[in-house]
Amino acid sequence: MKIAKNTVVTVEYSLSDTLGNLIEQGQEPMVYLHGGYENTLPKIEEALEGKDVGFNETIQVEPEDAFGEYDAELVKMEDRSRLPSPIEVGMQFEGTPDDDEDGDSLIFTVTEIAEDKVVLDGNHPLAGIALRFTLNVTDVREATKEEIAHGHVHGAHGHHDDDEDEDGEYRSYPLH
Length: 176
Hints:
Layout: E1 7-17, E2 22-25, E3 30-33, H1 42-48, E4 56-61, E5 75-79, E6 92-95, E7 106-113, E8 117-121, E9 131-142, H2 145-150, E10 171-172
Parallel strand pairs: 6-10
Antiparallel strand pairs: 1-2, 1-3, 1-9, 4-9, 5-8, 6-7, 7-8
């Protein structure tokens, strides 16, 4: 079966930068609904369109087609007293940038802690980096009507219902 709109694709993958430094070796295969449902990067879908089981290739995805360019304006310095204690580098908070009139929230990561200040970065950790994905297609099947209606895969490595995305992992935090 060829990969096309409304097929469920299983891909073993690894992710590295353009120098070959491994960023992530997928412990579990990526299983996604193909066809513009935003379950993976569009450039990955483009590379896999029309392929079938056994297809194996490494593709390069530029920052603008992956996680965007690095935006220095998304780096904020906040008073340490405004954040919960204890605080550690790597902690994440959901917040709204100062200049976002629409109120769209981002995930900010603590990147540095000084005596009374904390640096928060709203960029995706892979922003500004060209990425190489090594992709190996291991399965392709027709999507169920329910998967198509919900826009994502159900079952193993997929979602069972829309509420599972609400894991409360991030704390809400208004940025000033």
